[in-house]
Specification:
Blueprint lengths: L2 E5 L4 H12 L3 E8 L11 H6 L3 E5 L3 H12 L12 H18 L4 E3 L13 H10 L3 E3 L1 H4 L8 H10 L18 H9 L15 E5 L4 E5 L3 H7 L5 E2 L8 E5 L3 H17 L2 H7 L5
Parallel strand pairs: 1-2, 1-4, 2-3, 4-5
Antiparallel strand pairs: 6-7, 7-9, 8-9
Helix pairs in contact: 1-7
């Protein structure tokens, strides 16, 4: 029995891929990439346990993998989408990491649940050909082999019903695709402000960046966000009607701290003039 790696998200397509690959006689190890800006989080998956398929997690929110992933985002080889999302480069990053892992474990192929035409930035027929060309290992796509095509999931849902597979609703995808966060991601990533420790700040609060003083601020919007911000060292603490404010400056944290106090005061007083002024630097 040949052993194969399956790029696994926990969604409908990847669960169907498990069933189809097992029918083809493969022994499977599912691999989930924990990406820093993705909402997909199947760390514990009862479906895989039921199918007796082991799960390996590649944690890209820390260490070497985080740094490699951020470099991919900064310098993509292929076009971005409407946001800061270089989807094809992201898929290549995962496949190349799997390729290296497969080489160390004498595994000859990688499988995915990809369906041609399903996603415009990474799953057109042309883009899937690019993935084949840019990886040395064999790629197997069981759903594509069955003739599945396009964005409709009706055929997949019918097949899931036949197999008796339950599956979660879509998780909302990747934050990099959000057009409203494009400027935030571009600034924080290119200015090297996202690290393993600051990653929890990226998708909360109101963000401001002052290029003249290379200063970054995150202003909390509610109690939950304030509590996260207050776990950091450089912070102005919240109080009655006052949001917590994180601050960081490459040049002068003392001055940044003073600016953080001004930001806090503007939002405490709901001073529309000052808030409007600060929006010039809002991310």
């Amino acid at each position: 029995m040949k052993h194969i790696l399956l790029l696994y998200s926990g969604g409908l397509d990847s669960r169907l891929a498990v069933k189809l690959l097992k029918e083809q006689g493969y022994s499977i190890t599912a691999v989930f990439f924990k990406l820093p800006f993705s909402k997909e989080k199947p760390i514990h998956d009862p479906f895989l346990e039921k199918e007796e398929v082991p799960l390996t997690v590649f944690d890209c929110t820390r260490g070497r993998l985080l740094q490699k992933y951020l470099e991919v985002l900064k310098h993509p080889a292929y076009p971005r989408g409407a946001g800061y999302n270089p989807c094809l480069d992201c898929k290549l990053f995962m496949l190349r990491e799997l390729e290296a892992y497969a080489g160390k474990h004498n595994i000859e192929a990688i499988a995915t649940g990809e369906v041609p035409g399903q996603r415009p930035m990474s799953q057109t027929s042309k883009q899937m050909e690019t993935l084949d060309e840019q990886t040395r290992i064999k790629l197997i796509r069981p759903l594509a082999q069955m003739g599945f095509y396009g964005r409709s999931r009706k055929k997949q849902m019918a097949l899931a019903k036949k197999y008796g597979i339950d599956y979660p609703s879509p998780a909302g995808g990747c934050l990099l695709c959000d057009k409203q966060l494009d400027k935030r991601f571009e600034t924080l990533i290119t200015k090297h402000l996202i690290t393993e420790s600051t990653l929890p700040l990226v998708n909360l609060g109101r963000h401001f960046y002052f290029p003249e003083t290379t200063s970054w601020f995150v202003v909390g919007r509610d109690k939950e966000e304030n509590e996260v911000i207050e776990t950091f060292e450089k912070v102005i603490y919240s109080g009655k009607g006052k949001p917590a404010v994180y601050y960081y400056s490459e040049s002068d944290n003392t001055e940044a701290g003073k600016e953080a106090e001004k930001l806090q005061e503007a939002y405490r007083k709901k001073d529309t003039q000052k808030i409007k002024y600060y929006k010039n630097w809002k991310l």
